[in-house]
Amino acid sequence: MGIGSRIQQLRINNGLTQEKLAEMLNVSRQSVSKWEMEQSLPEVDKIVLMSKLFGVGTNEILLEEADIKKLRPQELHLGSVYLIARDFEKSIAFYEKLLSMTVSTRNCGNKFAEFFFDNKCLALMNEENLPGHHYTDGDHKFVLNFWVEELRREYDRLKELDIGEMTEIIKVNEGYYYFDIYDPDKNVCEITGGYNDGNE
Q: How far apart are CA 85 and CA 125, in angstroms?
């Protein structure tokens, strides 16, 4: 795929006609057409402007895909978040209430249960059915972070449910407030979000 094809693909992906892109770049539609047919090349300032309009680096316009991959850092993708649960049933009940949903899947061997939300997976692993995965007693230091629009409303909801020990709402700095709620294994769920402490 040449530079013209890459410009055309980025333009189409962003829902732009040749006319609209030309207008945004302050060039003629014929100029855009010539770039896409590789009859001419855009000037450097136009490439920089296109990279900003399309939200990509200039490399994405100028280089072949194989060369781009060599320059890109390797991406890590989050799969599931695993929590080792000492009291499996109690932990399932806790997270069903915390997330306001029923468990999504549950292994028939009672080894794990999964919650799918926000395109993520939280998996509870039943410690007694996981040989080799036993964790000794002590502080687990495992933190799940959740974000909500209205922190006070979520605090009140969880306080009313009384499903675990909670801290008060804590101010870290202006604009960042949170509270912690602990699951049955004392893993920390940190809840952050919008909050007005009455002093604003």
A: 6
